[in-house]
C-alpha cells in the first residue's frame, strides 16, 4: 500500500469537477499539492477549501494547449518541493458536435489539450521521477477511450490515443520504478457537458441529462485514490454505463446494437 503523506502531487484540471475533488481527497492524506488549470481565482478557491499550509501547496495556472511550457512548469515545482511523486493528467474538455460539422482546427484543439498536453507534461516530469526511482503517472481517460460515441469523434480519438501512449510508456518506465494508472470514468456529475466544445467552438453550455444524476466527483475521486493506493493499472468508474466496456469486449454483436440506441446527451 502506498502512503500518500508528504507525496508531491501535481493535479491538472484542479479548478473544477474531478480535479477539485481529488485535491480535497489528497489533502485528507496530508499530501503536498500543486494545483493547475487556467482560472487562477478558481484554483485559489479550491486551495481555500483544502486549507494546507503554504509550504505544502502551490498554485500553478497555465493553459494546457501551451505544451511548450511543460518543462519550465516542472522545474518550478522542483524548485519549491525538490521532487514530483505523482502527476494527475486530468484537465481537458469534451465535445458535442458531429464530425461532419466540425472544422479540423477544433479537432486539433481537442487533441492538443486532451492528448498532447498529457504527453508533454509527462515527458517533463519523467526525468525527475527516473532520478528519484519513483513516480506515478495517473491519466484520466474516459469510457470514450474504449469506444467511439455520438458527437464525440475527436474527444474519443484523443482518449483512445492516451491508451496507446500510456500503455506503451508503462512498459518502458516500470524499470525505473514509475507506475501508470489509466482511469476511465463513465458519467460523473461535473461541468464536463457545460464546457464541451461544439462545432462553432463555443461551449455546449447545458448539463446533459445523463450527467444530472450521475456519480458524484467526490465518489469518483475516492475510487481513483483507492486505485492509486492499490497499484491498479486501469480502472473504470461510474454507473451502469461502464458495463458497455465489458459488453464490447465479450459480446461485440450486442454492443453494436446497444451503442446505436444510446442518447448522446
Ligand atoms: N465528468 C465526466 O463524466 C467525465 C467522464 C469521462 C472523462 N472525464 C474526464 O475527466 C477530466 C476532468 O473533467 P471534469 O469532468 O472534472 O470536467 P470539468 O468540471 O469541466 O473540469 C475540467 C477541468 O479542466 C480544466 N481545463 C479545461 N481546459 C483547459 C485548458 N485548456 N488548460 C488548462 N486547464 C483546462 C478546467 O479548468 P479551467 O477552465 O480553469 O482551465 C477544469 O479544471 C477530463 O479529462 C474529462 O475528459 C470526465
Note the run of SSEs as H and E: EHEHEHEHEHEEHHEHEHH
CATH superfamily: NAD(P)-binding Rossmann-like Domain
Helix content: 40-55%
**Proportion of beta-strand residues:** 5-15%
Please provide a written account of the structure.
The chain is of the alpha/beta class. It has a single domain (8-240), classed as Rossmann fold, CATH 3.40.50. The protein has 10 helices and 9 strands. The chain has helices spanning 17-28, 40-50, 70-81, 104-132, 153-173, 192-195, 209-212, 217-229, 243-250, 252-261; strands at 8-12, 32-36, 57-59, 86-89, 135-140, 178-185, 188-189, 215-216, 234-237. The protein has a 7-stranded parallel beta sheet, sandwiched between helices. It has a two-stranded parallel sheet with strand order 7-8. α1 (17-28) packs parallel to α2 (40-50). It is globular, with a radius of gyration of 18 Å. The N and C termini lie far apart (38 Å). NADP nicotinamide-adenine-dinucleotide phosphate is lined by residues 13, 15-19, 37-39, 42, 63-65, 90-94, 113, 140, 142, 185, 187-188, 190-192, 195, 211.
Amino acid at each position: 500500500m502506498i502512503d500518500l503523506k508528504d507525496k508531491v502531487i501535481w493535479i491538472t484540471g484542479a479548478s473544477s469537477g474531478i480535479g477539485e475533488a481529488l485535491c480535497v481527497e489528497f489533502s485528507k492524506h496530508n499530501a503536498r499539492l500543486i494545483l493547475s488549470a487556467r482560472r487562477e481565482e478558481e484554483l485559489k478557491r479550491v486551495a481555500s477549501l483544502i486549507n494546507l499550509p503554504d509550504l505544502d501547496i502551490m498554485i500553478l495556472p497555465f493553459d494546457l494547449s501551451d505544451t511548450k511550457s511543460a518543462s519550465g512548469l516542472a522545474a518550478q515545482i522542483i524548485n519549491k518541493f525538490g521532487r514530483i511523486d505523482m502527476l494527475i493528467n486530468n484537465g481537458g474538455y469534451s465535445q458535442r458536435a458531429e464530425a461532419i460539422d466540425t472544422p479540423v482546427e477544433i479537432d486539433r484543439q481537442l487533441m492538443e489539450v486532451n492528448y498532447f498536453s498529457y504527453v508533454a507534461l509527462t515527458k517533463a516530469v519523467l526525468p525527475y521521477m527516473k532520478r528519484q526511482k519513483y513516480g506515478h503517472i495517473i491519466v484520466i481517460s474516459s469510457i470514450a477511450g474504449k469506444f467511439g460515441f455520438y458527437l464525440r469523434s475527436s474527444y474519443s480519438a484523443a482518449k483512445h490515443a492516451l491508451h496507446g501512449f500510456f500503455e506503451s510508456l508503462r512498459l518502458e518506465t516500470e524499470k525505473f520504478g514509475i507506475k501508470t494508472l489509466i482511469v476511465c470514468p463513465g458519467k460523473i456529475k461535473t461541468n464536463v457537458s457545460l464546457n464541451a466544445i461544439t462545432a462553432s467552438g463555443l461551449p455546449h453550455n447545458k448539463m446533459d441529462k445523463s450527467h444530472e444524476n450521475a456519480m458524484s466527483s467526490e465518489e469518483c475521486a475516492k475510487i481513483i485514490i483507492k486505485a492509486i493506493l492499490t497499484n491498479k493499472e486501469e480502472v473504470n468508474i461510474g454507473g451502469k454505463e461502464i458495463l458497455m466496456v465489458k459488453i464490447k469486449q465479450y459480446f461485440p454483436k450486442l454492443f453494436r446494437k446497444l451503442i446505436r440506441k444510446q442518447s448522446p446527451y
